[in-house]
Records
---
Amino acid sequence: MHAYRTHTCGELRDSHVGDEVRLSGWIHRKRDHGGLLFIDLRDHYGLTQCVIEPESPFFKQVEAIRQESVIRVTGPVVARSDDTINANLPTGRVEVRIKDLTELSAADELPLPIFGEPHYPEDIRLRHRFLDLRRETLHNNIMLRTNIVRAIRNAMESRGFFEFQTPILTASSPEGARDFLVPSRLHPGKFYALPQAPQQFKQLIMVSGFDRYYQIAPCFRDEDARADRSAGEFYQLDVEMSFVTEADVLETISSVTAEVFTQFADGREVTAHPFPEITFHDAMLKYGTDKPDLRIPIEIVDVTSHFAEQDVTFNAFKKQIKMGGVVRGIPAPGAAAKPRSFFDKLNDWARKDMAAPGLGYIIFDEEAGNLIGKGPIAKFIPDGVLRAMAATAHVGAGDALFFACDKESAAAALAGAARSRIGGELGIAEKDVFRFCWITDYPLFEYNETEKRIDFSHNPFSMPAGGMSDLKDKDPLDIIGLQYDLVCNGHELGSGAIRNHEPEIMFSVFEIAGYSRERVAREFSGLLNAFRFGAPPHGGVALGLDRMVMLLADQVNIREVTMFPMNQQAEDLLMGAPAEASAQQLREAHIRVMLPPETKKQD
């Protein structure tokens, strides 16, 4: 017989009755039923009920042993009586009568319970993550992640992709977030950077002639954590393809994503591929965001022209329109039946949470067969304009229409947030579905209000839709890049582009963003040199693995699908990172620590 187990704790069935078996695992819980002592023994594979009788020489030992201690038991498998069968447990028709028991590892008093999984403060869970991972929900989430990664690899390789690993120590790159820097011991005063993404390397792989690449790639960015974004590091499905158009990339990734999500959706509906495509302009107009949640059946409309009409006397909006502002209408289906407090609550939310003047609104009703408007601002709008506005917004009697008025970007942000808020308050979002779409035709550049200059809006390595002629003939803010994002249920799952593979176009693109030709040549020498020796047209995408798993696991926080996550402050409470370096380590790396004044005072 094996030293520790003949079977796992999830393996025993009716067919094993009468067999002598050995199991090893953790004591999940103990129960005393009329002298008999029951142990639920747990390992990675499941749970088996074991029973020990008072006359056993091990009975006192079992009484004293703590939960989560590791034990080995040996004994016969017996069938449970009909009234004690546990139909919810795969092993629930049998149990093991303990003939021999050995305590392999004693557990101290637990800082958090495993059985029952009661809510516990996050700092305790993270500090004792090895215990937290024993909990069934989190344990299953991590296994789901593993199975999803396997499915992704199968899907990619079945489509002719090859997995290659790219370097972790590399040079800094303008990906849009802060780098993690690594000092060089051999080259004093110089630093490596951990890759924000394998962007340049995967393009170099294409130039090297490998045609189709993928990798489950670790990425490192010194940015703050959010519910759907890990602090410091994350993993992504990184993809690149040669001799492809944007349509080729979208088709391939749609098919992979639909296949993987369908496999793990557990009965939930998944958008069929090819996924719908929405331009960035339309997304901002209809949804107020480039990450639209298509489960919410509300589309924002432009009602600026209606409020600009001469007969409309609502001056608060008319004044904004004259200064270049716009008015966005957010339909609220069926909201007319809601009490006044519903509208007041949304108005207060806009003021407090969104720092907006408020949300104007009109409630639509029917009177003598005619559509009429009610509410604080309805009296300022003639009946004909009200009906035209209702037709534009596709609302009717029983509905309401909210308004966001501001400069275009601010109005879009408020309208988009209001759309989500209204959809939630009305409870009209679809349930148990994954609604995918591609956002396309992103502006290549944007205006940086803080630094008063033109900056990259998305990926700096993207090809302008019109090539060099766009760079020469168009206003930079009107240039469209061959860029695209994959969105699901309001989350950005991935981002990609057809790459800029021509050196002169690359120089021109970076020049518009303020990079000199010399700086581009210096910072991207590897990529530029490669392009000079024959580069294929190529493009790709990167999908956030953590977010994919988070959605499929039906979790709202990405830490619930990450094995060893950091907290909101980018601290690893389990391992004690970040930590101070020793004087010797600093000397070897040629570094002197200069703490900011506020840190010195705290110390």
---
Amino acid sequence: MTDFDAIDALLAEARQEVPLPPVDVRRSLREELNLSRAQVAQALGVSPSTVGGWESGRDPSGAVREKYAYFLEGARTKLAARTAETAQGAPDAADAVEPRDGADEADAPREGTSDTGEADEVEALPTPEPCVLCGGPARHQVAGFPQHLDPADCGTAAPVPPEPEAAPAAPADPGPAERTASVAAEAPRAGRREQAPASRDRATKPVRVVPAGRRMQTADQSPDPIGAAVAAALEKHGGDLEAATAALVKKAIPDAMALLDETRKGGRYDVVAHPWIPDVLRKQTARGADRIWEARPKWARTELPPGAHEVTALDINGAYLSALKTHLPIGQLEHSTGFDHDRRRAGVHLITPPAWDHEDRLPNPIGNRDEPGPLWVTEPTLRLLLRLSGPKYGLCDPPEIHESFTSGATEGLLEKFRVALKEARDRAIVEDDDVTLEYVKAMYSKFVSTMGESNYNRELYRPDWMHLIRSQAFANLWMKALKAHEEGLTVVRAMGTDELHVIGDWRQVFPEGRGVSEVKVKDMYTVGEEPDPAAAGEDD
């Protein structure tokens, strides 16, 4: 396909977006129908905060825009019909009032008049229109309704059944206003009959289910504390996105702890909030750090081949969120000595790291360290070194383990917590919901950073977990650098938890996007210069 063919195909697929009413109209339509944001959100398959964003100035796109436009148009039509019924129903209800018991017959409204004694408005129609009672052609309208003035002309005039135990009486000729009231009374029943197919459609709609332990359950049975918190914040701040976001970020730590408790219900292990901690995990001074080395990478390549090179700085999405899936010690750490490593346990280890001979192409797995000799590392760092020293890679010698503080471990301790945050983040990205996105990011990043000695999170004191999760994020970045190198990319730089600079066609190696398994472009720049042909000729 040529470039022009691709452009033609793109233009053929392009279509004009469905217009939407102004934001103030969107909100008023919903509120006049007494519908909450949560109800609208559930029908459209989005979050309540997304609906709040649409009512505050953001516009949806794609298929969800068409659904939202359909809802707004339907709301407008329903409100217009309700207004018309109210306007028509007021005089009809007055016309249908029965005389009071014992009242003089002369006090009752006369046929063809209202209860005020004024004659109903009867007009001749220029062309016949269907009668509201029988559907046949009528030449007059009464109170705006086409109908026959003579009952004999109306094909569907039904006799009124006699009252029980009442003497037979001659059928009274119903006046035009009374016939109009009868039509109004039948309208709601007709409306219910018209809605029956929609009910059948709902009955055949697939049921959305989600996993709940070993069983499955319908999605509406699953608690959504994140969505509920966002909806409440938007409601409290009148749809102000910035104010709602600031309030949610401020309470991210207690909300994260509440979510952790919710996701730990039915778990096999109790989360020990304040176990005994060895001295290596305690701060050496009031403002200092403990003795654990997290292996944070801060590496840059020193030389590149001659010429100009296009470098792409890739941003690794949700680094700390992905790192929640790591081997965490369940209970109190226990001391041990010796070289052996038990993969069923996790903790911190005093090791002598191996020599690293690949600094010109790949960062050192233990990060930039100036001091030689033994150091305390975390479980992810030790496992990374053991993996790289194994037969698959053979990049270094095994580390020497001197002593350890470990406990029985599991990789799934925070898995439900991680999945809940990931699913909320994924939905927020699809729905362009920046409020939820910032809230979720604050929840997992602050959860990790305040697990140590912090005045902001007093419910959980696990500095070992904090170090392990951070180190897992660094190990994940290192493995991405190794993958890039093995796939033929030139690794230029690796920094922190989420930044990798490469030269080459990186899209053949990493999927692009905003998901936690994807990467996005943070920056692009050029390094080096193209050789000058004239200068090369002079050298010859």
